[in-house]
């Protein structure tokens, strides 16, 4: 049920007045259910009940005849102590800036008798800013009813109504609702009532069998869906963002994407004069060559305007004016986009907002046209025939246009284009990933080895690291790395401090680390020593997902190319060439290459991983996982050298270094460095 | 061309004549791993017939045609001879350390570090054809191009355009220790010739050191005219003045990591640090080099220099004993005096005690 409420909260658009945001507690009342709400007849309880909660009814009725109101009626039985724990709090999320919440009934039934009826004083209203850690403030509140004396076997009946819509979304009707949940439901019903002359289209996703009944009179029309014995829909991990594990239905009054473009174009109009300060900045940009001015404008909006989403008032969808954002130095995606577009337009670049969905991406074209399809906006412009898609909310990007990481959001609706179609985002292919070169130098089989790691971060990986570098101390990053490596070699010690070199122009960061590893060699049988060269960074992408037997698609980290080369410089030539191999594993989703080479004193293990697609379709998952399983056997190379410790000279180098340290009274190998 | 080859052979220390005997030292089934072992065997004991078995007429002709762009059997033969001579020259180094091999097209580039006890070194790619593993070229990284490429460019840009004599004259002036006149003749060359890499490379091959005041104007001019990939290595090779040397070492940053962290380079930095009084840094770098040159006397000999110039006389005596015991290398008193220079080692009490048991 938690999923049900969470999804509801996401679907509902948010808008709140500043006064509400500052702490005034919104009112929640108790009133009888509206007359238009149908009462659903409950089916007889089955002999076997689901645990820990058995849902008898999930009923949603939306009425848009006058003021849009959604009536919810849910009823479930507590069948286990875990259910009592999970279901004894009634929580309804709402946005008091434009929504009114009315409870109709909260009753606990025990053996057919009501043992609890809702009282006004039992309703607690608390702030519900779940996203504030991401600097997003949306003005949401939760109405909580903390039920007491709930026992296994009790039954809870809850009904309430939410009325009102965000005015910034206009008069056009647009609505999504689920037709299935993560729990089984005896009876799931949905009903939409509209004025007879309102023309809406609908589409059902994820349930080909769902029957939508449409009834029409002169003054009224209804759409109804009834699902008996709705199954529990499982949610597998590592799902692509566009995929919903639950069936759902979409209604829209928009006839075309052109109508959505017209709606959005109004929002992004700059209807005030630029302030002198902003004009002065524009004049400063104009003194630069155009390419440089564009790059500087992007970097300024990305790095100097901090991300802060005050999705309050009309600003849930209406951006603040550019001069306000410039002066306050904060904004969310639409604020930053409008400011960047204003700067670029002043540089005679035809920049425009592009509405995108960071979750649905190219699957957005599966929706019927609606403004509710989008959750983000970025800047689009064309320069010398080349298209650019710039996300002004990403900070610490490469500062050259050619090296700029342009996230591939799949499809976008260009606001000013008035084209009536979604545009495919075709970003320039760029390198995103990490190349790691490791060199392990061993002078013998007993001394600590030197371990040098040189990593090159490209594309979005460089940008993520750049952000970490800006927000963390170098010492913390060193500690973090040391802890990571200590998983493999608990005795690892820093040889020379970690260093970072940032080539922001090409968007590449190079990290160099150097360690002493006293426990690299592990004792084996009969005087032998063993070693292992692992490609952990590649290995993390090759391992199997948590849910292996899947009914849902599998997401891949994309775009991503990573390689790891680990070279061990042995104390002497021990011929491992007979063990050399090259293996390649490829399907339409990944390309994995693994090789071990031996070249006198050098044992090299090399592994490379490239994601070729964003996800693996469910029908291709078994073959793909089989491929991964094969590849996962080749994410490292282990070897052993025999008769090492039986050689009387095997400690000669270590003894020599110890003698040198004693005589010179200096420390060269190990911790003190 | 023949005069040039004659000069090169002199520089590279040559011997023997061409042999047509074809004992198959390296066959098709051998890996680069085995091929390199044979190369090293020959480098250790450069028998003429074995040296010439490393080359092959057809392989050299294919290399000259496809890689250098010269389809001329005579050129291929000459360049093969110079390649063998270069290998023979390299065998004169005190130490040969194999680094790694890399496949490029139809060839293997086997990277070696050749070094002498006095610290001089060469970073060299020995280029072998993948087919038959025949030696086709030698590329000393301190210089701009490989031996065969150098010959090819020389023929195309210098000989065919008639500047052979002018360049020979400059080389002769350098050899005769008249860098001032050499610079004048160099500046008199037409600009189109003066900007050629082959010209700078030719002259660098004749200049031993740039530290002498008289040579500096010529060196500086050549270095500034050339856009050399490994400018730092070249500079370090040409200067022994500490300040210039340190400056050159700083340019190692542009050199690939595999070379920058190779034992000879680390040792050079270690000795420089020691001479500048940075004892801890000098020893730390020397340890890094020792790690890479494990079981090799070269590393310990360089460490000895670091120890001597750091004033660690007691450890220097221990190290000399270690080198004697482990590698059976014993220095004469004169050699030790030369090695230690103005470090004060010879005058130290530790040495006075030590020499009683050492010699």
TrEMBL record, chain A:
| Start and end residues of each DUF3857 domain | 67-229
List the InterPro entries hit by this protein, alphabetically: DUF3857, Papain-like_cys_pep_sf
Alphabetically list the UniProt keywords: Signal
Look up the signal peptide feature and give its range: 1-21
What name goes with this protein? DUF3857 domain-containing protein
From TrEMBL, chain B:
Leader sequence range is: 1-18
Instruction: Could you list this entry's UniProt keywords, alphabetically sorted.
Output: Signal
Output the InterPro entries linked to this UniProt entry.
TPR-like_helical_dom_sf (IPR011990)
Superkingdom classification of source: Bacteria
Matching SUPFAM superfamilies:
TPR-like
Give the protein name, as stated in the record.
Lipoprotein
């Amino acid at each position: 049920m938690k999923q049900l409420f969470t999804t509801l909260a996401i679907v509902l658009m948010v808008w709140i007045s500043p006064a509400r945001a500052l702490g005034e507690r919104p009112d929640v009342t108790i009133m009888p259910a509206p007359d238009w709400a149908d009462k659903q007849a409950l089916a007889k309880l089955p002999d076997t009940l689901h645990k820990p909660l058995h849902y008898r009814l999930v009923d949603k009725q939306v009425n848009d005849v006058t003021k849009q109101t959604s009536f919810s009626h849910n009823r479930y039985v507590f069948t286990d102590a875990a259910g009592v724990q999970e279901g004894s709090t009634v929580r309804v999320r709402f946005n008091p800036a434009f929504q009114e919440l009315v409870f109709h009934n909260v009753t606990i039934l025990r053996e057919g008798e009501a043992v609890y009826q809702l009282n006004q004083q039992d309703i607690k209203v608390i702030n519900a800013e779940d996203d504030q850690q991401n600097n997003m403030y949306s003005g949401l509140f939760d109405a909580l009813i903390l039920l007491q004396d709930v026992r296994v076997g009790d039954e809870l009946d809850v009904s309430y109504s939410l009325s009102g819509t965000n005015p910034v979304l206009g008069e056009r009707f647009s609505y999504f609702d689920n037709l299935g949940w993560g729990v089984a439901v005896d009876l799931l019903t949905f009903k939409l009532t509209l004025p007879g002359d309102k023309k809406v289209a609908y589409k059902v996703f994820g349930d080909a069998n769902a029957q939508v009944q449409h009834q029409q009179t002169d003054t009224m029309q209804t759409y109804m869906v009834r699902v008996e014995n709705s199954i529990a829909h499982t949610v597998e991990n590592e799902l692509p963002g566009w995929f919903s594990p639950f069936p759902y239905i979409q209604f829209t009054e928009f006839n075309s994407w052109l109508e959505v473009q017209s709606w959005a174009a109004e929002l992004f109009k700059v209807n005030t004069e630029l302030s002198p300060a902003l004009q002065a900045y524009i004049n400063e940009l104009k003194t630069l060559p155009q390419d440089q001015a564009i790059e500087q404008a992007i970097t300024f909006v990305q790095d100097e305007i901090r991300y802060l989403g005050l999705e309050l008032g009309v600003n849930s969808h209406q951006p603040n004016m550019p001069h306000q954002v410039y002066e306050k130095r904060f904004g969310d995606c639409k604020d930053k986009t409008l400011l960047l577009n204003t700067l670029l337009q002043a540089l005679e670049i035809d920049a425009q907002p592009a509405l995108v969905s960071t979750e649905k991406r190219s699957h957005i074209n599966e929706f019927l046209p609606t403004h509710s399809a989008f959750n983000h906006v970025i800047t689009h412009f064309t320069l010398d025939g080349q298209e650019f898609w710039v996300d002004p909310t990403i900070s610490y990007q490469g500062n050259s246009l050619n090296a700029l990481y342009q996230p591939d959001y799949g499809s976008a609706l260009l606001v000013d284009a008035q084209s009536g179609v979604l545009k495919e985002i075709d970003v320039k292919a760029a390198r995103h990933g990490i190349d790691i070169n490791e060199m392990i130098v061993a002078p013998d089989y007993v001394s600590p080895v030197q371990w040098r790691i040189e990593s090159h971060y490209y594309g979005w990986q460089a940008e993520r690291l750049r952000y970490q570098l800006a927000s963390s101390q170098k010492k913390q990053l060193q500690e973090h790395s040391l802890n990571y490596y200590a998983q493999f070699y608990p005795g690892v010690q820093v040889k020379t401090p970690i260093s970072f070199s940032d080539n922001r122009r090409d968007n590449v960061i190079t990290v160099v680390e150097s360690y002493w590893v006293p426990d690299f060699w592990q004792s084996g049988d009969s005087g032998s020593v063993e070693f292992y060269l692992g490609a952990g960074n590649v290995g993390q992408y090759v391992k199997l997902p948590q849910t292996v037997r899947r009914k849902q698609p599998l997401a891949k980290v994309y775009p991503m190319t990573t390689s790891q080369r680990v070279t061990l410089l042995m104390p002497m030539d021990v011929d491992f060439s007979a063990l050399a191999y090259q293996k390649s594993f490829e399907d339409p989703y990944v390309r994995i290459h693994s090789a071990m080479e031996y070249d006198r004193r050098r044992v090299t293990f090399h592994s490379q991983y490239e994601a070729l697609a964003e996800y693996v379709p469910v029908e291709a998952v078994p073959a793909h996982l089989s491929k991964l399983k094969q590849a996962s056997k080749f994410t490292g190379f282990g070897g052993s050298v025999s008769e090492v410790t039986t050689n009387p000279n095997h400690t000669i180098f270590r003894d020599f270094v110890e003698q040198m340290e004693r005589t010179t009274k200096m420390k060269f190998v190990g911790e003190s460095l | 061309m023949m005069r040039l080859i004659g000069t090169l052979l002199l520089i590279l220390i040559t011997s023997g004549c061409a042999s047509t005997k074809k004992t198959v030292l390296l066959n098709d089934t051998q890996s680069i791993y085995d091929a390199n072992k044979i190369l090293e065997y020959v480098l250790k004991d450069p028998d003429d017939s074995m040296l010439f078995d490393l080359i092959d007429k057809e392989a050299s002709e294919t290399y000259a045609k496809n890689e250098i762009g010269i389809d001329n059997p005579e050129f291929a033969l000459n360049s093969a001879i110079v390649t063998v001579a270069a290998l023979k020259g390299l065998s004169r180094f005190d130490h040969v350390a194999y680094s790694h091999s890399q496949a490029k097209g139809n060839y293997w580039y086997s990277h070696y570090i050749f070094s002498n006890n006095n610290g001089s070194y060469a970073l060299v790619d020995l280029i072998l054809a993948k087919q038959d593993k025949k030696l086709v070229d030698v590329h000393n990284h301190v210089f701009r191009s490989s031996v065969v490429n150098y010959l090819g460019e020389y023929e195309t840009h210098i000989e065919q355009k008639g500047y052979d004599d002018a360049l020979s004259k400059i080389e002769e002036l350098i050899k005769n220790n008249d860098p001032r006149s050499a610079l004048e003749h160099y500046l008199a060359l037409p600009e189109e010739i003066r900007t050629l890499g082959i010209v700078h490379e030719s002259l660098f091959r004749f200049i031993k050191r740039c530290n002498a005041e008289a040579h500096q104007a010529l060196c500086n001019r050549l270095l500034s005219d050339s856009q050399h990939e490994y400018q730092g290595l070249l500079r370090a090779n040409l200067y022994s003045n500490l300040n210039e040397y340190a400056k050159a070492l700083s340019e190692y940053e542009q050199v690939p990591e595999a070379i920058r962290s190779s034992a000879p380079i680390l040792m050079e930095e270690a000795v420089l640090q020691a001479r500048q009084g940075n004892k801890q840094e000098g020893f730390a770098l020397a340890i890094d080099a020792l790690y890479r040159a494990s079981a090799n006397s070269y590393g310990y000999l360089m460490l000895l220099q670091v120890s001597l110039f750091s004033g660690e006389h007691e450890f220097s005596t221990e190290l000399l004993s270690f080198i004697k015991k482990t590698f059976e290398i014993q220095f004469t008193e004169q050699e030790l005096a030369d090695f230690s220079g103005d470090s004060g080692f010879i005058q130290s009490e530790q040495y006075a005690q030590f020499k009683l048991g050492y010699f």
